Amino acid sequence: MKKLSTRTELNTITSTLGEISTRLTALVETEGPQMDNDVYSELVAAERTVGALLRRLNRAARNV
């Protein structure tokens, strides 16, 4: 029973982060050219970090 709740929780977190990732990507792609370079760099770094986190959480969810 515990595995199911853990998997469900991980899937919920992964889904939420997936939405955040999509929104970050859209922001970087559409607004990036008009942004200050420092802000753009930070958003690109955040986008990469969220992507890496999503991959790790997906692996964890598969192994529960």
Describe the 3D structure.
This protein is mainly alpha-helical. The protein has one domain (about 1-64). The chain is about 90% helix and about 0% strand. The chain contains 2 helices and no strands. It has helices spanning about 1-30, 35-64.
Number of domains: 1
What's the rounded overall pLDDT mean?
A: 92
N- and C-termini, Cα separation: 11 Å
Distinct helical segment count: 2
Quaternary organization: single chain
**H/E element sequence:** HH
Uncertain residue ranges: none
Derived structural class? mainly alpha
Please outline the major beta sheet: none
Which features characterize this protein?
64 residues; mainly alpha; 2 helices; 89% helix; 0% strand
